[in-house]
């Protein structure tokens, strides 16, 4: 089976037409004073030509009995680039 150059074999579940190719996961550590974090990965189904970006936000629970929540957004590469540009613009505006 052919693997994309970005495929991390330790994360990959693709095998003979099933599963997914996954890139190495990158993480954004929680901002000081919060437990909100995020991870990013590239993924592609073994039978799919579509390459997607997986952005998962990890949200803390509101109290000790609450495990928190994960929210995942899947998008194509062009949308990920557009989101990156938006984040850069508002980040620069917020920091003056």
What does this structure look like?
There is one protein chain. This protein is α+β, with helices and mostly antiparallel strands. It has one domain: Nuclear Transport Factor 2, Chain: A. 20% of the residues lie in helices and 32% in strands. It is built from one helix and five strands; from the N terminus they run βββββα. Strands 1, 2, 3, 4 and 5 form a five-stranded antiparallel β-sheet that branches. A hairpin with an 8-residue loop joins β2 (26-28) and β3. The protein is globular.
Note the topology.
Layout: E1 20-22, E2 26-28, E3 37-45, E4 52-59, E5 69-76, H1 77-95
Antiparallel strand pairs: 1-3, 2-3, 3-4, 4-5
Summarize the biggest pleated sheet.
5 strands, antiparallel
Strand content: 25-35%
Number of strands: 5
The DSSP helix count reads 1
Helix fraction, binned, reads: 10-25%
Question: What integer is the average pLDDT?
Answer: 93
Tell me, what's the shape? globular
**Radius of gyration from the CA trace?**
16 Å
CATH architecture: Roll
Which spans have pLDDT < 50 for at least 5 consecutive residues?
Answer: none
Give the terminus-to-terminus CA distance: 49 Å
What structural class results from the helix and strand content?
Answer: alpha+beta
* CATH topology tier name: Nuclear Transport Factor 2, Chain: A
Q: Give the oligomeric state of the chains in this entry, treating copies of one chain as homo and distinct chains as hetero.
A: single chain
């Amino acid at each position: 089976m052919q693997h994309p150059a970005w495929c991390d074999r330790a994360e990959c579940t693709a095998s003979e037409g099933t599963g997914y190719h996954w890139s190495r996961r990158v993480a954004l550590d929680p901002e000081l004073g919060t437990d909100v974090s995020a991870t990013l990965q590239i993924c592609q189904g073994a039978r799919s030509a579509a390459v997607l970006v997986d952005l998962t936000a990890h949200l803390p629970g509101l109290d000790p009995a609450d495990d928190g929540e994960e929210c995942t957004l899947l998008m194509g590469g062009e949308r990920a680039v557009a989101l990156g540009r938006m984040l850069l613009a508002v980040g620069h505006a917020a920091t003056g």
